[in-house]
Amino acid sequence: MADGPDIREMPPILEQFLERGLRLPPCPAVISQLAEAVRDVEHQSSELARLLKMDPALTTALLKVANSAFYGASRQIATIENAILRLGYTEVMKIAIGLKSKEFLSAPKLSVFSGWLYEHSLRTGLILRRLGRDINPRFEEHYFTAGILHDIGRMVLAQVDPDYAKFCLNLPMLLKEEQIIVLGDEKKRWGNDHTEIGAALCEFWNLPKILQTMVREHHMSSLTDRSAIFFQLADLWSTIMTVPTKVPPKIYQALLDTRICLKAHLHPDQASELGEQIDREVQALMSV
Known about the structure:
The chain is an all-alpha fold.
């Protein structure tokens, strides 16, 4: 696989931000390589192990997560091969992408915002992965990765204009049902909205077209598009679970009942159980 497009192939949307002095976040090579490896069903596990071994720090962090209380391993998992055998290919890939995503979802001068963005992205990916199984289990890895990447455009805007971080953490704005209005506000103030910027960044990183499309269209649901509906539900659900946009328990339950359970076809007990599971997964990934 090629290393990615050179500067001459850069999407026009991103050029304006470079002119403002922004350094585009590099995509960790392992993420683009893992996205490509998904296509090779016959050699998925061996290719995953090979890629992870090229990154010793990631290997160490991944084994720490694999041995955490969340996975409840009865015996110590000491190698990547053993982790794949015990936890499964998709689970190990999920952990790897979740851990590496912190590299491009962090900014030293935006600690509160980037902390929120990383946790929100993790939660969105985990929730979407679970909901997406009911639509197409074969796309499980893509749902998770798209959830991780869906708001990467927000990081670009926040680095160009610090006021965007405050705009982004405005809970009433994040809870608007008509997010298309919010995208319009972004276009007026910054020229492009975060979905367009995020999709352009995925293109620059040479990620699969399906991920570019999901990032670009995650606010453009139609009533007949279950993937888009579930993406918006995962985004909302994650928002109300993530500090500082986390809502009080009574409001959380009301939003869960009225805006998530009905559209996701989940019983409230199922939703509560899933929310608790997501909490444990996020804690395991963020503890290393």
